[in-house]
Amino acid sequence: MFDGFREECGVFGIYGHPDAANLTYLGLYALQHRGQEAAGIVSSDGKELFSQKAMGLVADIFTEERIKKLPGNAAIGHNRYSTTGDSSAINIQPILVNFALGGLAIAHNGNLVNAGILKDELEAYGSIFQSTMDSEVIIHLIAQSRMASLHERIVDALGHVQGSYSLVLITEKEIIAVRDPHGFRPLALGEVDGAAVVASETCAFDLIEATYVRDVEPGEMIVINKDGIHSSFPFKHAEPSHCIFEFIYFARPDSKVFGQNVYAIRKAFGRQLAKESAVSADVVIPVPDSGVPAALGYAEEAGLPFDTGLIRNHYVGRTFIEPRQSIRHFGVKIKLNPVADALRGKRVVVVDDSIVRGTTSKKIIKMIRNAGAAEVHLRISSPPTMYPCYYGIDTPTRQELIAASHNVEEIRRYVTADSLSYISLEGVKQVVNFPINYCVACFDGAYPVPFPGELMAQLGLFDKK
Ligand code: AMP
Known about the structure:
Elements: E1 8-15, H1 20-30, E2 38-44, E3 49-55, H2 58-61, H3 64-68, E4 74-81, E5 95-99, E6 102-109, H4 115-124, H5 136-144, H6 150-160, E7 166-170, E8 175-179, E9 188-192, E10 195-199, H7 203-207, E11 211-215, E12 221-225, E13 228-232, E14 242-243, H8 244-250, E15 256-257, E16 260-261, H9 262-276, E17 283-286, H10 292-302, E18 310-312, H11 325-335, E19 336-338, H12 340-343, E20 347-352, H13 359-370, E21 375-380, H14 402-405, H15 408-415, E22 419-422, H16 425-431, E23 438-439, H17 441-444, H18 452-456
Parallel strand pairs: 14-23, 17-20, 20-21, 21-22
Antiparallel strand pairs: 1-4, 1-10, 2-3, 2-4, 5-6, 6-7, 7-8, 8-12, 9-10, 9-11, 12-13, 15-16, 18-19
């Protein structure tokens, strides 16, 4: 079994810096929100690749001693986010192998929708898989490619995969960054002390004082080695489909992704939400932390005071990390606590970024009422999440998505809000400047890359070309 769409990750790479591993550690630290289950770094000293990886948080894994074991002026790193399923040590990235052309390690953010089909075919031809990660398919495709050079083999391999990938690879001599032709997941290129860096989000650049140069473009492959930076567009062109959920929830607000600042977009979602669904109220409070920018935008537009009505305990991970349903329910309570003085007797607008299963909202509304609020109006800065994501954002199956089987009024009753409104999809598109194409499949079911059922009907890997 593959972990499927439960892969949300952060990737980082640097070439040409004497402190490569240290800066990679810091980069991963800044990208911790993209994955808290495990992390790894692979470095190169020009002759050999070195790997250190473990389960846990970046700061706990990368002790001075471990970083010392990562010599060289090039490194790549990966943060892994997993919820349920196989969270064993074998699944920690970067995946490091030695094959016919030497050492190679790969760090992948995204999800390959045809990984299962490719894996079956590769196994039929003798491949032996070490992990349950879809990313390992890419390694096998590279190893089995009949092309001569590594670059040709990477292009050949990626020509077979479908889905989302922002990849960083390292060999003894270079690092390579690739973004899928749809550009589902972000990947940015920067510069620090003359060294080139790539990262899932620009917040990683800020921490290491790197300058943002530009995004790695959809369908672009960038090779960085002693000869400099070489860019090419070797894949079949596709319409860009940037993941809207990066803006709604996933990316850090101080990052720039898809060329736009996440905080500004989230705040504009809040303003748009207030325009679409005003309500008489005394105060606007966010569900921290992800609801804060939208709540600020909402309060500004509605002309209502913004207040802190919920305090988040920062020492627990994101709710979804909990592996079992029973623990996740409990998780909301350990994570958030109401500030009764800010809520008592008030008509409260609560702003959150999304409702997935509805569990969080229900608990939060109960908390706010118990703290003495007179009315609770829930406002959501994304449209109803009705379809699962197959391109790298963790979403449950359709059956578990409350909006897949319930209308807004039914959800309002379930979460016990006095009123409930979501931002419209048109409102979202307006804010992000549609049609600079975004993938909004989680809201409208229009999947830009067909998912496994349909892929089954397609030609097998070894019949292609
Ligand atoms: P739920 O209880 O399932 O409705 O969860 C909704 C909460 O989970 C919201 O407060 C969101 O901020 C958060 N959330 C939404 N999408 C994700 C995701 N992909 N991973 C982790 N948390 C999420």
